[in-house]
């Protein structure tokens, strides 16, 4: 069993001392909490952001390296650009995992409703982001389905700073294992009212493990024009990833073996993914405290990858084309009332094909039930419409109330392009009573969900604020969960996942000191999981509770300490049994109680910064029965950045002590303990120039 961490008492002591300090108010602006730029202190949500200065220092080559600075975020890095999300949740994997954290760029979801991908953040242009905003906890009232555990919103670079001439930056970075990256930004004013900007990122990595490299290209083009009372911002984003994928290494503590940690048991595995997004934001000032924001958008994604983790190693091809409109109307009534109303609508055409190209290896059962040929080939058209409203009422100088509600209606129109049932592609029956896969008949499915929210902020003083929040969120079943069935299952009788959440927090701000301490409890129902018969079920239930701390303190003029720490418990709360073990009360696997990021910064001059970072990953169970565990790890990293004239030099020394660790540990009843090994000590050097 896990022990209560001794550091928790120190955290609470630090917070009590912080509250007594009486910090001064500091403004921080965000857009993700209301769709309009407002002070972070105006909302009762748990909000975090990573600003441009921090992003430049971290200079991540994987988004996980930046998200570790967010309390409650415990993203597990996979191979290449892959990852598994965790935000006020266990590390999410398997059925029901993707789509539990909504990922966006400039407020627009990266993926269409119902067509999530577990790794979808690699489709954002986060390498050039102006900042990253994160809502921790359910945010369905404003953002709809998939924001059940929270939101990660990548904010693209500003445009419109140029007055004349051409300006830009050019950066180059190199690192171990043949890693190279180039970032180029160019912007200019094309008229008194218009600006354009282009951002290009090119990366190539040979990979720490054998045959595990990738090449990635990202291009963003922006145009901003002012026409009367309207600002019109148009952005085109294109990304492409070609990746060789490495799988788990197997064996107890195999990640500690230097030779094994470099091995790739699946050299044949790969992932090719491309995405295109185009939107225009019409920001119209209507006068008298009214503002209208209209955002039509188009999206297209295509992906091919080898299912190296399944018997037969079938090839999956999937994609979607979608068009939508986000509309928001803001009304401000004096100093006391603010109302945001909106309507989101989207149409998506998606497809999925699964094709096995070679004979299945293994037992007679596997060979007979997983034949060569097509397993699935279907299309799904999805229609969704969702009105919502959010009201902010300033009752007095110290009390502000918040309330909102969203209704969402989603319809799937599924079209099977193969023979229905459990046969091979040509209709031949499989041995052992049928094939492993099952294709349902053409059908339509509808899901209707409500997401209300209530909150309040209470200003204890000019510097200290209490906030509370009660919210309900939901996640509709994704297309793959509904229509890629297993064995004799002919219909996936799934309901939308539902979550209820309550949180209480305190935040304070001062020139030298800032903090936010939040305690939360959540109950999640209709949790989708795959049972021992490989059926998708939705009668699971889990409970989540925890404490999160974000703290920054200037020790002296040159020195600063920052903390992002979490203590959480995630438990099964249903009567499910797995291999004879009742799961009720057990901790959810891949859910450490304690994790966090602790940083000491030194800035002797404005243009020079050095940072020492300690990443703490607590121990966690690797199976639902809580019979196997990973002991956790502690990592140290050092970052420096020096700016002079129009130049900037930076160095990142990661895993300073050359610690042997696992980015992710897991237990399989078929092969035992398995791991994604972490990289050894590595150094990255970069240089950039402005003109």
How much strand content do the residues show? Answer: over 45%
Quaternary status of these chains?
single chain
Number of E strands: 40
Q: Which structural class fits the helix and strand makeup?
A: mainly beta
Overall outline: globular
Question: Biggest sheet, open or closed, and with what strands and sense?
Answer: 22 strands, antiparallel, barrel
Q: Count the DSSP helices.
A: 6
Distance between the termini: 58 Å
Estimate the mean pLDDT confidence: 92
Low-confidence stretches: 1-26
List keywords for this structure.
single chain, 691 residues, mainly beta, 22-stranded antiparallel β-barrel, 5-stranded mixed beta sheet, 40 strands, disordered N terminus
Give a short overview.
The chain has 691 residues and is mainly beta.
SSE layout and pairing:
Blueprint: H1 7-21, E1 29-30, E2 38-39, E3 46-50, H2 52-58, H3 64-67, E4 76-77, E5 83-84, E6 102-105, E7 108-109, E8 131-136, H4 140-143, E9 150-155, E10 166-175, E11 179-189, E12 194-205, E13 214-227, E14 230-244, E15 249-250, E16 270-287, E17 290-306, E18 315-333, E19 337-356, H5 364-369, E20 373-394, E21 399-416, E22 437-438, E23 443-459, E24 464-475, H6 479-483, E25 485-486, E26 497-509, E27 513-530, E28 536-554, E29 559-572, E30 577-578, E31 581-582, E32 594-605, E33 608-617, E34 620-621, E35 629-630, E36 633-644, E37 647-654, E38 662-668, E39 672-677, E40 682-690
Parallel strand pairs: 6-9
Antiparallel strand pairs: 1-2, 3-8, 4-5, 6-7, 8-9, 10-11, 10-40, 11-12, 12-13, 13-14, 14-16, 15-39, 16-17, 17-18, 18-19, 19-20, 20-21, 21-23, 22-25, 23-24, 24-26, 26-27, 27-28, 28-29, 29-32, 30-31, 32-33, 33-36, 34-35, 36-37, 37-40, 38-39
């Amino acid at each position: 069993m896990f022990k209560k961490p001794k550091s928790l008492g120190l955290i609470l002591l630090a917070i009590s001392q912080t509250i007594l300090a009486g910090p001064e108010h500091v403004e921080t602006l965000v857009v993700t909490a209301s769709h309009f730029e407002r002070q972070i202190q105006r909302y009762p949500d748990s909000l975090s952001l990573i600003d441009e200065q921090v992003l430049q220092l971290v200079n991540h080559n994987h988004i996980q390296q930046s998200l570790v600075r967010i309390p409650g975020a415990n993203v597990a890095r996979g191979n290449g650009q892959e990852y598994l999300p965790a935000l006020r949740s266990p590390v999410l994997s398997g059925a029901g995992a993707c789509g539990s954290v909504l990922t966006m760029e400039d407020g627009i979801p990266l993926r269409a409703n119902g067509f999530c991908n577990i790794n979808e953040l690699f489709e954002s242009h986060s390498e050039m982001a102006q900042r990253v905003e994160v809502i921790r906890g359910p945010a369905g009232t404003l953002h709809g389905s998939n924001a059940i555990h929270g939101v990660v919103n990548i904010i693209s670079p500003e445009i419109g700073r140029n007055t004349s001439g051409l300006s830009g930056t050019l950066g180059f970075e190199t690192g171990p294992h043949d890693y190279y990256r180039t970032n180029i930004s160019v912007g200019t004013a094309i008229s008194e009212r218009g600006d354009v900007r282009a951002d290009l990122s090119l990366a190539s990595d040979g990979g720490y493990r054998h045959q595990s490299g990738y090449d990635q290209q990202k291009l963003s083009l922006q145009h901003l024009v002012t026409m009367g009372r309207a600002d019109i911002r148009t952005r085109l984003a294109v990304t492409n990833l070609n990746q060789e994928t490495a799988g788990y290494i197997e064996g107890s503590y195999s990640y500690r073996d230097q030779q094994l940690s470099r091995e790739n048991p699946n050299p044949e595995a790969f992932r090719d993914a491309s995405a295109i997004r185009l939107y225009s934001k019409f920001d119209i000032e209507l006068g008298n405290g009214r503002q209208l924001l209209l955002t039509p958008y188009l999206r297209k994604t295509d992906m091919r990858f080898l299912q190296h983790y399944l018997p037969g190693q079938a090839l999956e091809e999937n994609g979607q084309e979608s068009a939508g409109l986000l509309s928001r109307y803001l009304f401000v009534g004096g100093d006391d009332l603010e109302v945001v109303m909106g309507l989101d609508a989207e149409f998506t055409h998606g497809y999925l094909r699964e094709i096995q190209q070679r004979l299945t290896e293994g037992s007679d059962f596997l060979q007979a039930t997983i034949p060569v040929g097509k397993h699935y080939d279907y299309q799904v058209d999805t229609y969704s419409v969702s009105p919502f409203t959010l009201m902010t009422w300033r009752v007095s100088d110290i009390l502000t109330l918040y309330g909102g509600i969203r209704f969402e209606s989603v319809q799937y129109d599924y079209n099977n392009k193969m023979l229905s049932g459990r046969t091979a592609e040509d209709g031949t029956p499989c041995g052992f009573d049928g094939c492993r896969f099952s294709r349902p008949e053409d059908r339509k499915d509808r899901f209707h969900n409500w997401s209300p929210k209530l909150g309040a902020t209470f200003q204890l003083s000019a510097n200290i604020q209490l906030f509370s929040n009660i919210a309900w969120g939901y996640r509709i079943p994704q297309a793959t969960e509904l229509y890629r069935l297993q064995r004799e299952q002919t219909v996936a009788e799934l309901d939308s996942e539902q979550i209820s959440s309550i949180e209480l927090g305190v935040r304070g701000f001062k020139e030298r000191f800032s903090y936010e301490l939040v305690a939360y409890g959540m109950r999640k129902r209709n949790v989708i999981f795959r049972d021992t018969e490989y059926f998708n079920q939705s009668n699971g239930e889990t409970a989540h509770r925890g404490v999160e701390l974000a703290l920054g303190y200037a020790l002296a003029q040159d020195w600063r300490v920052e903390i992002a720490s979490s203590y959480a418990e995630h438990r099964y709360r249903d009567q499910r049994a797995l291999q004879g073990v009742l799961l009720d009360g057990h901790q959810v696997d891949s859910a450490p109680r304690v994790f966090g990021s602790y940083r000491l910064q030194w800035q002797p001059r404005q243009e020079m910064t050095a940072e020492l970072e300690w990443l703490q990953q607590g121990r966690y169970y690797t199976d639902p029965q809580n019979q196997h565990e990973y002991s956790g790890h502690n990592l140290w990293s050092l970052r420096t950045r020096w700016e002079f004239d129009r130049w900037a030099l930076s160095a990142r020394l990661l895993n300073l002590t050359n610690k042997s660790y696992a980015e992710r540990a897991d237990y399989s009843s078929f092969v035992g303990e398995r791991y994604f090994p972490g990289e050894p000590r590595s150094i990255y050097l970069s240089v950039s120039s402005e003109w």
